[in-house]
Amino acid sequence: MSNRIILLAHGSSDKRWCETFENLATPTLTAVADSRIAYMELAEPSLDDIVAEGVKDGVHQFTIVPLFLAAGRHLRKDVPAMIEGLEATHGVTIELAPPIGENPQLGEAIKDVVVQQLGANKS
Amino acid sequence: MSNRIILLAHGSSDKRWCETFENLATPTLTAVADSRIAYMELAEPSLDDIVAEGVKDGVHQFTIVPLFLAAGRHLRKDVPAMIEGLEATHGVTIELAPPIGENPQLGEAIKDVVVQQLGANKS
């Protein structure tokens, strides 16, 4: 059974915010089959939009990968509550993965960015 | 003249939040001389703590690298206002770098994390 990956960003009414997350998501959306981006609030597509679209496509299993550096109230309370509602409404199973910032690769990428910036400033 | 790097995280009263950012910062703090972590609010050390410590050490130039995926109100308004205050109070120069999420390397790291997680789930 296919499993659709949902990259979940916070969302904002500021288009520049969403553009940054769309750029961040692009390599994953390009490399990983059956992956989508969705916003928790204040921007579209919403999580509900993407789950409804999946159901239409015959997908009933989803994994949410939060594009968040750490888990705060949103990931500990709000998103699990949204997931419970979506599972009941759409008859689907949704797994919540840890926020991407909990993976050590992110710390390495941050180091690379800082070192690169320092080099650029020096030249 | 030496320039101190400040990795700026949002901060939270939840220790697990700060631990995640400390883990994210560790590779940079290890690799980059004269780098520190600071929190915008709700956790210590504060930005003021770190700038005051720098002044004590004879440092008068700082670069803030925001450990944020995108620039919202905090980075567009609150942090620039804090910087203005700190420059006036401490007689220092503080440069605000773009949030780490605006660097394409972060998007690549996110892709690697998702691909790795998918592989782990399959095995």
TrEMBL record, chains A, B:
One of its GO terms (molecular function) is metal ion binding. It holds the Pfam family CbiX. InterPro entries: CbiX-like, Sirohydro_Cobaltochel/CbiX. The keyword DNA damage does not apply. Transmembrane segments: none annotated. CDD domains: CbiX_SirB_N. The keyword Ribonucleoprotein does not apply. It comes from the Bacteria. Keywords: Lyase, Metal-binding. This is Cobalamin biosynthesis protein CbiX. It comes from Marinobacter similis.
